[in-house]
Write a structure and sequence with these properties.
- The chain is α/β, with parallel strands linked by helices.
- 32% of the residues lie in helices and 22% in strands.
- It has helices at residues 6-29, 39-42, 44-47, 52-55, 88-102, 125-138, 307-315, 337-357, 385-398, 406-410, 415-421, 436-463; strands at 110-117, 144-146, 157-169, 188-202, 215-220, 227-233, 239-243, 252-257, 265-271, 274-282, 286-293, 319-325, 362-366, 402-404.
- Strands 2, 3, 4, 5, 6, 7, 8, 9 and 10 form a 9-stranded antiparallel beta sheet that branches. The chain has a 5-stranded parallel beta sheet with strand order 11-1-12-13-14, with helices on both faces.
- Helix 1 packs parallel to helix 8 (337-357), helix 6 runs parallel beside helix 12 (436-463) and helix 8 packs parallel to helix 9 (385-398).
Length: 464
């Protein structure tokens, strides 16, 4: 047997070490798949935090009082005045949204806002605050889209169900047995295998604008053999509707007129393998603000959705604004600036994808809040959180969209630790999630920033 010379062995080991050292750098330049990473796979102890911060007793909530196109630029330093960072093209799209809002009360039309985010927006906490304020100003009522099976308690309404069903999501750990990827605008749907009953009730301490529904729109994807839906309430007479047969990739809707009063409502479904991709409750006019939380998501899942189906779903309505609130789930495992750059590039691809579907909508990206590692640690903020925020802002502005820095708005580094020690507490002991009171403050800050931009637009219009 012939043995290797020692020098050959040394050279081989040096080569291996070199490859391992350079691997993270090479990843930045490779066209890697858009794999959505969940904390369930990376840091189980963080992802296992349940909704204890939502389970606390919640106090009564007080309701708050044609343009020339500019091509997107790669100039990161191109900003306009106002609390939202963005270039001139981004501000033009925002002004187009404001123009629609200013005339909304004089029409019978709906204008839609989609608020996507991670677990920070679960339970309708931040979204509910801006929805209540904006609907009070620009009209409309109701919580917008809700899932047919709700896994997280919500301030929007109280919801329960029974029957032979299963919930599928594109975020978290997607079910590999699913035969299609037509999840719809919520990136989640409920499959009814033979029957399901769903009961919704106005939340007793929820926002007043969430409690009255003039219509319910039921969104159906796959329904191989069709089925039946019966809707009835305390004041609404029973209505039975036939669900037409449809295959994967279909997007159908059924609208039921309601009595427009505060009432409990029941939905009874029968049929084999029906995919319900959402139920919209509201007034049928005015502003509709949808809360779509995606626990464990970093916001890089949208390209995994079936594009044609997602496009049908979103273009079914007039979508004026899409809010993307992500970044927090990347903080525990982004260890250097190169990893932050890679995440920023992946996020940029999602923006391009979403804009290709909704070219006329304004996009507002919200960076992550301050996040503490632990209460007994000397590092009260994840060390790469600044790099993550910087990359999210950089790619957002480069793509001609808007960015709001929640980290700075709430007070900057170490704020989450301070909020967790407030009495009453504004942040959970995990130093990651806001309590309902903390989320209320964040919602108010976002509302104030949005209205500040609206006042700038109003002044500009008046001066013309």
């Amino acid at each position: 047997m012939k043995f290797h010379e020692p020098v050959h062995t040394a050279l081989f080991l040096a080569l291996i070490v070199g490859v391992l050292y350079l691997a993270p750098y090479l990843e930045i330049f490779l066209d890697t798949p858009e794999n959505e990473t969940s904390l369930a796979e990376v840091i189980p102890e963080i992802n296992s935090i349940q909704v204890n911060y939502l389970s606390e007793e919640i106090e009564e909530i007080v309701v708050l009082e044609e343009i020339e196109e500019i091509e997107p630029t790669d100039d990161f330093n191109t900003h306009c005045d106002g609390p939202f960072a963005g270039n001139a093209n981004a501000k033009k799209k925002l002004w187009r949204l404001f123009e629609k809002l200013s005339g909304l009360e004089d029409t019978s039309e709906e204008l839609h806002v989609f608020h996507y985010g991670d677990s920070q927006i679960e339970g309708d906490r931040i979204t509910g605050r801006i929805r209540s304020s904006w609907q009070k100003t620009w009209g409309g009522s109701g919580p917008g889209l809700i899932p047919a099976s709700q896994p997280i308690p919500s301030l929007a309404l109280r919801q329960s169900h029974k029957g032979n069903i299963k919930r599928f999501t594109q975020f978290g750990r997607a079910d590999s047995t699913l035969e299609h990827n037509c999840y719809g605008g919520m990136a989640a749907f409920t499959r009814i295998y033979d029957s399901m009953s769903m009961l919704v009730k106005p939340h007793p301490v929820g926002f007043r604008k969430n409690k009255v529904w003039h219509e319910a729109e039921i969104l159906i994807g796959r329904a191989p053999d069709g089925g039946k839906l019966t809707v009835y309430g305390e004041e609404t007479d029973s209505v039975t509707i036939e669900i037409a047969p449809s295959q994967a990739g279909s997007h159908n809707s059924v609208t039921v007129k309601l009595d427009g009063v505060k009432e409990d409502l029941k939905f009874d479904f029968t049929g084999q393998d029906i995919d319900v991709t959402g139920i919209k409750l509201g007034s049928g006019y005015g502003l509709v603000v949808h809360n779509i939380p995606m626990r464990g998501s970093s916001g890089t899942l949208f390209k995994k959705l079936n594009k044609e189906h997602y496009k049908k779903y979103m273009q079914h309505w007039d979508v004026g604004l899409v809010i993307l609130q992500f970044g927090g789930n990347t903080a525990p495992y982004i260890l250097d600036e190169l990893a932050a750059i890679k995440y920023g590039n992946r996020f940029r691809k999602q923006l391009k994808y979403l804009r290709s579907i909704l070219p006329d909508a304004a996009f507002l990206v919200i960076g992550p809040s301050d996040m503490g590692i632990s209460s007994d640690s000397t590092a009260l903020t994840y060390p790469m959180l600044g790099a993550i925020r910087h990359e999210m802002e950089r790619v957002t502005v480069m793509e001609g969209e808007l960015f709001w820095d929640m980290f700075e708005a709430m007070g900057g580094e170490g704020t989450m630790e301070v909020w967790a020690e407030e009495e009453p507490r504004l942040a959970s002991p995990d130093l990651v999630h806001f309590t309902p009171k903390g989320a209320k403050i964040i919602g108010n800050l976002l509302d104030e920033a949005f209205r500040s931009e609206f006042r700038i637009w109003e002044k500009m219009v008046q001066e013309e």
